[in-house]
Design a protein that fits this description.
The protein is an alpha+beta fold. The protein has 15 helices and 13 strands. The protein has a three-stranded antiparallel sheet, with no helix packed on it. The structure holds zinc ion (ZN) (2 copies). One zinc ion binds next to loops. Keywords: Cell inner membrane, Cell membrane, Membrane, Transmembrane, Transmembrane helix. Its main location: membrane. It is found in: Cell inner membrane.
């Protein structure tokens, strides 16, 4: 029997070993506890190797080129990062570099470094460390959002110049799908099940006993066994810190939500970029960027940018505020729905990066002096801060707190019950 401790509602459950293709969902909050994959090692390894080749191509050849009145600017994937640094916006440059190049590249490299020895039958337990790092990097790869940023940028420039796609762009688009497929076909148990465990921590928690679940590798350990093994707060399998609840979750989330709300105002009031075209200057805020797209009858893109840049950050902050207040008032109102709301904030936050990428791409493409140039402005820095801070705020909120008030008898000491298994 495999034991699961739901990371979102803390319900202890056990299930028989899964057939390939089956999914285990939490019986209480329907969180996906585990998804078993057939031939996971072969499929994931093949996709990851293909991804590495595509990653090298995407970073080595021209990405987009900008042609205006006989002048051509050619860019690579990383040109925008350097242009932002030249303009003194290094904070934004670092975020863009990390989310669009470093995180996806590291994910691929770490995955290959773990899966190749596994395939060759030479797995050693220390490989749990690069694999753990890979798991931590998952939320930070945002190439798909970058692609939407490219679409918006190209539309914005169609009146001004001709934009030509380079080899890298095609490799980049294929890479997005290859990496997404590799991530979804990967069964993490492939790696975790090879890590040897000391005898006491292999025990299944007894009814009524306090157990801790690892947020990285799903290992469930009775806290008594943890003390016996001499491990007080580290996961015996992957080494991540184990917490009954995320430490100081409410204080941290409050602080981050308040900081993000404060930055939200300058992010929307200050211009995010200044466009110089034939000597005349025009500053754009996030909202005026949306209006520009509307005036050019690009309402689907206008809607995308409005939702991603204005609606989503505010919605996310309001949901987090609601969750914080409801937890502090020890509300018992609809814990399942509140857990779902939390899941929404985790999923949508990254899409707000679209406008940050648009600024990066425009700054990289358009620098022909007085003829045409685009400068990143302070609004972009504040906006980037809002997006990153809200992502951290959602990460520091512990959804198990929602359940603590609703069903105190259902904390992790509960009698194990069967989760929902679907083939
Ligand atoms: Zn649950
Ligand atoms: Zn672990």
């Amino acid at each position: 029997m495999a034991v699961y401790l739901c990371p979102e509602c803390d319900l202890l459950q056990n299930a028989p070993p899964l057939a390939a293709g089956s999914v285990v969902r939490c019986a209480r909050c329907s969180f996906t506890l585990h998804r078993a994959r057939a031939n996971s090692l072969d499929h994931t390894l093949a996709l990851t190797l293909a991804g590495l080749v595509l990653f090298v191509i995407a970073n080595s050849f021209p990405f987009l080129s900008f042609q205006m009145q006989g002048q051509i600017t050619e860019t690579t994937l990383s040109t925008g990062v350097f242009s932002l640094i030249e303009q003194g916006k290094w904070e934004v440059a670092l975020v863009v570099l990390f989310t669009s190049i470093l995180a996806p590249g590291l994910q691929l490299a770490l995955l290959v470094s773990v899966l190749l020895p596994l395939k060759a039958g030479r797995f050693s337990p220390w490989l749990a460390q690069p694999f753990r790092l890979f798991r931590h990097l998952l939320p930070w790869g945002m190439m798909d959002v970058f692609l939407i940023g490219i679409l918006v940028s190209v539309v914005k420039l169609t009146d001004m110049a001709t934009i030509v796609a380079g080899v890298s762009l095609f490799a980049f688009v294929v890479l997005i799908f290859v990496l997404a497929a590799a991530q979804s076909l990967l069964d993490p148990e492939l790696v975790w099940s090879r890590v040897p465990l000391k005898a006491p921590v292999r025990l299944t928690p007894k009814a009524g006993e306090l157990a801790l679940g690892c947020e990285t590798c799903e290992q469930v350990v009775p806290s008594r066994a943890l003390q016996e093994a001499g491990l007080t707060d580290a996961c015996p399998r992957c080494g991540s810190a184990l917490h009954h609840r995320k430490p100081r979750s409410l204080q941290r989330t409050w602080a981050l939500v308040i900081a993000a709300l404060m930055f939200y105002i300058p992010a929307n009031v200050f211009p995010i970029m200044t466009v110089t075209s034939l000597g005349s200057e025009q500053s754009d805020t996030i909202l005026s960027g949306v209006l520009f797209l509307l005036h050019h009858d690009m309402w689907p893109l206008a809607l995308v940018v409005f939702v991603a840049s204005i609606f989503v950050p505010l919605l996310k902050l309001l949901i987090l505020l609601f969750l914080l207040v409801s937890v502090q008032l020890r509300s018992r109102w609809r814990p399942v729905d509140r857990t779902r709301l939390y899941r929404i904030t985790e999923a949508i936050g990254r899409w707000s990066m679209v406008d940050v990428y648009v600024v990066t791409i425009l700054v990289a493409l358009v620098h022909l002096g007085n003829l045409a140039s685009i400068q990143a402005e302070a609004g972009a820095v504040f906006f980037c801060a809002v997006v990153i801070i809200t992502i951290f705020a959602a990460m520091s909120f512990d959804p198990r707190l929602i359940w603590d008030a609703s069903t105190p008898e259902c904390a992790s000491g509960m009698q194990p019950s069967g989760p929902l298994v679907r083939g």
